[in-house]
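FYI - complex with flavin mononucleotide, inputs then prediction.
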Amino acid sequence: MEVTEMEFLEVVGTRRSTRWFKTYQPVEREKIQEILEVMRWTTCPGNLQPWRAVVVWRDELDPDIREELLQADNWQGAHVQAPVWIYIFADPEAARPGSFATSTQQLIEVGAVPTAYGWSKTRIVDAIERAVETPAGMAAINELLHDLPHEASATIAHSETVGACAVTVLAAVNAGLGTCLHMIARPNKQARVKEILGVPEHWIPVWVQLVGYPAEGVEAGGQRPRQPFESTFFEGNAQTPFRRDPKVVEKMEREKLLQAPAPLPGRRDELMFLARMYGYPEDQDD
Ligand SMILES: Cc1cc2nc3c(=O)[nH]c(=O)nc-3n(C[C@H](O)[C@H](O)[C@H](O)COP(=O)(O)O)c2cc1C
């Protein structure tokens, strides 16, 4: 089934970590561009936008390089089968205090960050360079950014890029594709993957987003387990579970955010046939 034109809640509810792809069906270039276009609009502190991505079309790779990239991910089935691999990195240079100053000054210019709250170009520079306290109403960037160590920039760049990945997986589903995030490479292969992809030394590997048309059904055996709402979300303090209104739950079911849980009937057979199709053992031990 082609999945298109879904509303937001259905996109979120329909996403699965796809582990079986139609390895023979290429993905349209436009759909990959669509994913990248969406990634640009992820939010992040100071509008730093530290994410970088290298799109790799599996079938255009030199066979030896393809094997090396697959070996780096331990030959996981989804990676072998997916025709497009989006390698996502974080650039810590984009999260240095100077970058923050430049981009927040731009946010003042475009009217996003209100001067009414105390933001000004001079205050931003004073706070970052000389730790001058910011007025109430403006973020306390003097504490956050003055003398920021390089390791902290790396952490910020990495965590903001992880956030962007949460958006790009939804973009893939919205485009009617299956997708899954994996580690770019086992730790001792990361440097080699960076070399193969020609990325600058200082970029940090985040995740590789595998993209293709799913070989499993859209439901992929049902929604995967989640921890109970009440032991995850609280109000006021961490001892008081957030009161979950059954009416909202019903709405979420109607809007297809909440779907039938895994395992759906027939999933074992589906997995058996997929394994047979791709030449994997049909029933390995638990
Ligand atoms: C950053 C990240 C890395 C992941 N790495 C793998 C992986 O290497 N292999 C795999 O089979 N699944 C991987 N997954 C999928 C998770 O196991 C999956 O998201 C989780 O079981 C929840 O299922 P769902 O995404 O279908 O809701 C990864 C997921 C994320 C977000």
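The chain has two domains: 8-94+151-223, 97-147. The chain has a mean pLDDT of 96.
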